[in-house]
Target: Phosphate transporter PHO1 homolog 1
Amino acid sequence: MVKFTKQFEGQLIPEWKEAFVDYWQLKKDIKKIHCNNTSSSSKPIRKKSLTNTLFSSIQLSLFGNQCRDREFIHVHSKLAPTTSKGVQYETELLEQFDHSEATSAFFALLDLQLNKVNEFYRKKEKVFIDRWECLEKQLHILVELKTALKYQHKNKANSSNQHDSKEEDFISGTISCDEESNKGMIDQDLHDDENLAEELDKYDMQFTALPRSQELEKEGSKREGERSLSHCISNCHEKQLKIRIPLTNPTRAFSYLLWEDLINQSSKKQNAQGKKLHINKTKLHHAEKMIRGALIELYKGLGYLKTYRNLNMLAFSKILKKFDKVTNKQVLPIYLKVVESSYFNSSNKIMKLADEVEEIFMKQFTKDDRQKAMKYLKPTQRKESHAVTFFIGLFTGCFIALFTGYAIIAHTTGTYGPQSNTIYMETVYPLLSMFSLLFLHFFLYGCNIFMWRKTRINYSFIFELSSKRELKYRDVFLICTMSMTTVVGVLFVHLSLMEKGYSYSQVELIPAFLLLAFLVLLVCPLNIVYKSSRYRLLSVLRNIVLSPLYKVVMLDFFMADQLCSQVPMLRNLEYVGCYYITGSYKTQDYGYCVHTKNYRDLAYAVSFLPYYWRAMQCARRWLDEGDTGHVINLGKYVSAMLAAGAKVAYEKDKSVGWLCVVVIMSSITTVYQLYWDFVKDWGLLQMNSKNPWLRNELVLRRKFIYFFSMGLNVVLRLAWLQSVLHYKFGGIDYRLTGLFLAALEVIRRGHWNFYRLENEHLNNAGKFRAVKMVPLPFHEVDEQD
Model:
């Protein structure tokens, strides 16, 4: 049977962990009480005074007469300070109770947890209710605009004297409204979360009520009048409705720059009729999609709040049972009655709101199809199959057998020795090296997922992955083992054919077909081999390549960081592509793509591209968010490009001057990167934290792991010294040395990934951010704007 502690920890919302009942500390207090009871003799109970007796009678009338003869505690309720709603609870130990220090500390902490849970629940409930009121207004506007557009299309179809067919895709309408502007709603919600985090920190010392946020003004009277036949937008209280669709891709950005400019020019020519809202089907579709996403996130947040209530209620019940068992007292019925009547358990607003969201979502987005609506609101996770585990083992065994055979043949033929087959090493080996680095990185990503899940780091929320489509760590391991088995199997056959006397010209296209097969599978439109994940990868790569034009999200710049560690793989891919596309394989001229100036310059450009893409992402984030930290981060990638350029120049001119430039630039870049790794990406080296030189909150229990990881990261960052020292490892081919160093950088990146997401997760937890705050499309702005 699973212990409740593990059940509790496994089901709580990770980002709200600090707001849950501190069940672990309460258990420690009960252990102290148990130790005191076993080590000390029982003490005589003091006589009750007349005053205490009268006071107890008054309190008993408030909480009932349950266990009247054996009542040990009274729970007082008092009004909270004027800055907060609700009541606070305080437990009084009666004279029948053993007034030990441990018992008093237990009930003080218990009261503190009950007050904390109530206040957090009340605060989050208000945030979700306010969000729902805002979404209701957005839905009302959406319905009116859709109706207006449909009505105008009907009129246009019936009209015979239209001179511009494109104009029927647009409406300009007036929507009378008496509600306040929704501008800044998201910022207010985020600000409320930050305030909540700051306030709950104060519970470590004493209970302080949270400041009450100002209520949103309710909708006033009913909407006045009907829309005119021209559907012109009317100003309401000198406010004008505008639609803001985030410019997340180049199409929206260019259409905004070009089309909106034409709209503004035409608006200037209008007379007293005022400004008009120009909207087409595409814009309305994007607005509808944004509102739908906001409703899904709201419903998810309501589900989290239900879980929060149920788990806390269960935690109070379990801890009180433990207390009764240890002390042989009956406080469970008394205190649990107070807990049941407290705000977080008695309020039913969230239940009603969840039902209302379901009904509205079904009506507006799924045409009253409840089953379809629940697929959006409550997506079920993909079940893990035992067949995946079986095939992982199967392909692992096949890979080991094939790789062993390949290594034996390579050793007997001297393929990788000092007198190696130059043609093979220059043409086939880069392909093996490329796939090895790629799937080593994939394997480490699978290890990352395993550790993130084990440590309750919500990587799905951070990367905005769908629970139905995200890859589990077993899926990643299956892809790695299956792919590497295929690669090694094909290369084993290729090397075996060469060993049997086949000429290189007869088997030279086998590696090319292998690469082509993987590329075709990557873009295959059939729903096979994790299609959704393949297409998501392609979309992320597209966002990276066009990074200044696409809005940057966490997954995009995380993937760009991975590419910065895969420069050798990209150079191998460029070389192999050049070798086969230019037809060099026909003449076995493997030096053509190395010595020809244009292709040599292309190879150098490939080395710069990942750092350039990452720098452009930093520039885009700085433009979007205005945070100067992104400019500083951009400088890190610029310094990496300068260091890479110095190495390129040193490869051309082996002079002492360029050697000094390489050492200086690489040293500066390494220090820059190490600082950013430890302080910014990992959030460590905080001198004033409660964990010296680490940070206040740690996911891993053993602190020495963090110090070891920092040391390991430093060592792996210094792998560039090999390019300067040119140390030779015996008679091993320099290409194998290069693969080994490239693999070390990939391992460093996989190791870096865990701590990067740990820090991001703790930042979300510090702000109690468990759901996305989706921007809303409709905003009211001043007429002057």
Remarks:
- Residues 436 and 484 are 8 Å apart (CA to CA).
- Residues 123-157+166-322+346-380 form one domain.
- The first helix runs from residue 4 to 11.
